[in-house]
């Protein structure tokens, strides 16, 4: 048999040579091949093979990376450090215990939640509508939400939660928010809230955690606050209660949650969440340094740089809170707007924030802080100008008559003693406020104003100073909502206790703006009213606005998915915890 060569000449195979010599080599022959090379050739041979393998793997990896992208994967443990152990993990009985609030965020679901940027978004709510008159809110619920024991979550649970809050025998801390509200069951997955009067910020009330009727319906109001279900709760949120540990004294030392595998939303991705409780803030710092915890609220802004040096991420989160000096114009000196402005010109806000708060705040010029709905960024800044402050006081007739550096004014009658420029500044004995007050005393002294600091426990301050309005000036704070609704703090109807108008401010224009904002359901109109309100406050200058504190949350860089820019209380950082993740996997592009 012959075959045709490339020359076109018929050729016969040469005896003893196969048609494909490489094909005839056995595996053992291939192992012998390197031995026919010299040492240098053998090194080059293996180098070429290794280079081929590495190139192939690298090329394949690059192609895989090009065709895929990382996404969250289920797995990992997140360890949170806290100082105070839980007491009652129940949204009906929330107190000042931040740990209780944190756990409620993870275990229970709400009708609505905030997305980390201050936007209210549906959670258990599938959709909602508001009546034209602003008095009726209809909520359709998701149909796939279940309690951790597998029982479906329905409208009955929502109705039960609200009516339990409204029942005075339960003494719920949320009751004031729900007085005058009627709730109606429209179907298994639909409810309606009816208000007596339009109230535009009402949607904030619907950021409400729901409790299971089938568990709490058989617990009396008297026994509710002591029920075991407060520490071993059944919720419908992204995490379920797994276990807790106690020390010899019975105090909870560790609280463990596990991922809800039947959660109705995307996620959660982190498999286990552990809360460990420490005796002091210093122990929290040590635990983070020892890598025993992954997340911690900063106990002092001055430690932020230290946490960063340990590899912690430290975003500063805006909070709708303000601290200011509220001036009582019953003091004749403070009736004069120019005097009030002179006192403001003497305070270097940036220095105060750095000196007292370690930089953990933003200077403010109005009653609505930056990052909050309705904030007016066009308000002119009150510059630090002590010389201008001195000039204003001198023009008003205040002089240093005895050479002690403090200002006085001659009395109307020659026989009377000069009137000193003296102001009593009341505040809480909380360290940040007390230290701020002492710093302000020195700033005012530099322009000749004698300030006396009256710092006292918060309970005494509220009962003896704030409620009866017995102060010249009050250094205090106000907590706003995502919709700030300044009515309670600035409407003239709120000047007397139990109202919260501690600036004792009254303006027909401002009253009308705040009333209109409450009645309207048009967000753009509400925002415009809030901005005009701030302009009016700035013109009248009843208060010296100082700062809005920021909140710093420290977490390790291996924790992803956090996007927190603003919240009212620190617990809201967990509103989006179902999106946090530690593990990842790669999937092909859609």
Automatic annotation (TrEMBL):
InterPro entries assigned: Peptide/Ni-bd, SBP_5, SBP_5_CS, SBP_5_dom
Keywords attached to this entry: Membrane, Signal, Transmembrane, Transmembrane helix, Transport
GO aspect biological process, one term: peptide transport
Gene Ontology molecular-function annotations: peptide transmembrane transporter activity
Membrane-spanning ranges: 44-67
Superkingdom of origin organism: Bacteria
Record-annotated Solute-binding protein family domain positions: 120-491
GO cellular component, one term: ATP-binding cassette (ABC) transporter complex
Pfam family, one: SBP_bac_5
Gene3D superfamilies hit by this protein: Dipeptide-binding Protein, Domain 1, Dipeptide-binding Protein, Domain 3, Periplasmic binding protein-like II
SUPFAM superfamilies in alphabetical order: Periplasmic binding protein-like II
Annotated family: Belongs to the bacterial solute-binding protein 5 family.
Matches recorded under PANTHER family: OLIGOPEPTIDE-BINDING PROTEIN APPA, PERIPLASMIC BINDING COMPONENT OF ABC TRANSPORTER
Name of the featured protein: Solute-binding protein family 5 domain-containing protein
Organism of this sequence: Candidatus Sungiibacteriota bacterium
């Amino acid at each position: 048999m012959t075959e045709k060569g490339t020359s076109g000449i018929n050729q016969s195979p040469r005896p003893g040579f196969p048609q494909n010599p490489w094909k005839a080599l056995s595996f053992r022959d291939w192992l012998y091949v390197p031995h026919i090379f010299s040492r240098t050739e053998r090194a080059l041979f293996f180098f070429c093979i290794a280079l081929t393998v590495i190139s192939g793997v690298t090329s394949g990896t690059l192609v895989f990376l090009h065709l895929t992208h990382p996404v969250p994967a289920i797995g990992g443990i997140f360890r949170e450090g806290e100082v105070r152990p839980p007491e009652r993990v129940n949204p009906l009985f929330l107190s000042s215990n931040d740990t209780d609030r944190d756990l409620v965020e993870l275990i229970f679901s709400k009708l609505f939640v905030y997305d980390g940027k201050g936007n209210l978004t549906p959670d258990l709510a599938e959709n909602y509508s508001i009546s034209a008159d602003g008095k009726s809110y209809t909520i359709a619920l998701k149909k796939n939400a279940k309690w951790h024991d597998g029982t479906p979550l329905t409208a009955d649970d929502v109705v039960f939660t609200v009516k339990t809050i409204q029942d005075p025998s339960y003494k719920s801390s949320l009751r004031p928010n729900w007085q005058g509200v009627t709730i109606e069951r429209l179907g298994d997955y639909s409810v309606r809230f009816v208000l007596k009067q339009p109230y535009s910020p009402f949607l904030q009330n619907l950021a409400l955690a729901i409790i299971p009727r089938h568990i709490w319906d058989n617990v009396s109001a008297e026994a509710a606050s002591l029920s075991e279900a407060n520490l071993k709760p059944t919720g419908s949120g992204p995490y379920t209660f797994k276990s807790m540990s106690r020390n010899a004294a019975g105090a909870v030392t560790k609280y463990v949650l596990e991922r809800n595998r039947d959660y109705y939303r995307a996620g959660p991705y982190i498999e286990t969440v552990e809360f460990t409780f420490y005796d002091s803030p210093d122990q929290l710092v040590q635990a983070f340094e020892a890598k025993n915890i992954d997340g911690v609220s900063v106990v002092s802004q001055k430690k932020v740089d230290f946490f960063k040096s340990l590899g912690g991420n430290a975003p500063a989160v805006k909070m709708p809170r303000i601290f200011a000096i509220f001036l009582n114009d019953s003091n004749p000196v403070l009736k004069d707007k120019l005097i009030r402005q002179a006192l403001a010109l003497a305070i270097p806000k940036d220095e105060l924030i750095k000196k007292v708060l370690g930089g953990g705040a933003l200077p403010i010029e109005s009653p609505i802080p930056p990052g909050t709905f309705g904030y007016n960024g066009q308000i002119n800044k009150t510059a630090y100008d002590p010389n201008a402050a001195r000039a204003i006081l001198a023009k008003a007739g205040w002089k240093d008559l005895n050479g002690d550096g403090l200002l006085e004014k001659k009395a109307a009658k020659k026989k009377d003693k000069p009137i000193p420029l003296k102001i009593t500044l009341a505040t809480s004995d909380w360290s940040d406020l007390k230290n701020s007050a002492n710093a302000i005393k020195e700033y005012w002294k530099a322009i000749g104003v004698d300030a006396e600091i009256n710092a006292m426990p918060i309970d005494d301050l509220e009962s003896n100073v704030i409620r009866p309005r017995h102060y010249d000036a009050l250094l205090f704070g106000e907590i706003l909502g995502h919709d700030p609704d300044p009515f309670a703090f600035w409407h003239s109807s709120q000047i007397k206790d139990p109202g919260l108008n501690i600036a004792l401010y009254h303006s027909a224009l401002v009253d009308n703006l705040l009333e209109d904002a409450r009645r309207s359901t048009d967000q753009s109109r509400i925002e415009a009213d809030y901005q005009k309100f701030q302009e009016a406050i700035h013109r009248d200058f009843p208060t010296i606005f100082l700062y809005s504190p920021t909140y710093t949350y420290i977490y390790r860089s291996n924790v992803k998915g956090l996007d927190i820019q603003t919240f009212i209380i620190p617990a809201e950082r967990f509103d989006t915890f179902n999106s946090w993740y530690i593990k990842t996997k790669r999937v092909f592009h859609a």
